[in-house]
Write a structure and sequence with these properties.
Layout (H helix, E strand, L loop, with lengths): L5 E7 L17 H10 L5 E5 L7 H6 L1 H4 L7 E5 L2 H4 L14 H17 L3 E5 L9 H8 L15 H17 L2 E3 L1 H10 L19 H21 L1
Parallel strand pairs: 1-2, 1-3, 3-4, 4-5
């Protein structure tokens, strides 16, 4: 890391994607501030943002060659889960887009493929959500038994499980984990703080600027630790 510029690819859904794709008020997402943040640790890095909104690990597998492997990265950061676990109740669905089994299998396949290329992998849990968007509150409120719109964390009932799956896969595959989910929840448990301060107002799903900077710090610390260990 001290003698070359690291090539990093960040692949994920809209929470990873360039801000103009989903939140114009956000000036920089994690991938934007990561090179500057790593430079403070003496690590020179270039980061390709391969995040695309409304995508799952199934989509990631389909575009892995084009959007990730094509760049010959030294390190790949992976963050999916919100869309994988999401129920399209407004479209008549009552089940997650992807089962937990497929979600885990997709993550393992992605990790295995990147390892054959010699790339390091960092898995990130998805960030937790909160009820804020009136559209989804109404949609799920009309279908009791799916996600509890009266419980502050009701929107995370399934995401809790998918975040646990990321931790399990990271442990089994022995890859580096950045537990964004736990960090956001921990922030909200500090007296005088709320997790809503890390999420877009009226959205409750995507990290706002403060949330993006927190993710960037978590990721920077973990990457810096990896290369210090070398």
């Amino acid at each position: 890391a001290q003698g070359k510029k690291l090539r990093i690819v960040a692949v994920g859904d809209s929470t990873t994607a360039p801000a103009p794709d989903w939140a114009a008020p956000i000036k920089e997402v994690c991938a934007d501030c990561l090179p500057r943040s790593l430079a403070a640790h003496g690590i020179s890095a270039s980061v390709v943002n391969a995040g695309i909104g409304d995508t799952t690990t199934r989509d990631a597998l389909a575009r892995l060659d084009r959007d990730v492997r094509h760049h010959h990265p030294d390190l790949v950061v992976i963050q999916f889960g919100i869309n994988d676990s999401w129920i399209d109740v407004d479209q008549g669905s009552t089940a997650p887009r992807l089962t937990r089994e497929e979600y885990r299998d997709n993550l393992r396949t992605i990790i295995g493929t990147l390892r054959t290329d010699g790339a390091r992998v960092v898995l990130m849990t998805p960030n937790p959500m909160r009820w804020a968007d009136p559209y989804y509150i109404k949609a799920f409120g009309e279908h009791p038994g799916l996600l509890d719109t009266h419980a502050p964390r009701g929107i995370d009932r399934l995401l809790d499980l998918y975040a646990a799956d990321v931790r399990e896969v990271a442990h089994q595959e022995q890859v580096t984990l950045v537990d964004v989910f736990a960090a956001f929840e921990g922030y909200g448990k500090v007296p005088g703080q709320s997790i809503d301060e890390l999420l877009l107002a009226g959205d409750g799903i995507h990290p706002n600027q403060a949330g993006q900077h927190l993710v960037c710090k978590l990721l920077t610390d973990r990457i810096a630790g990896l290369y210090r260990a070398d």
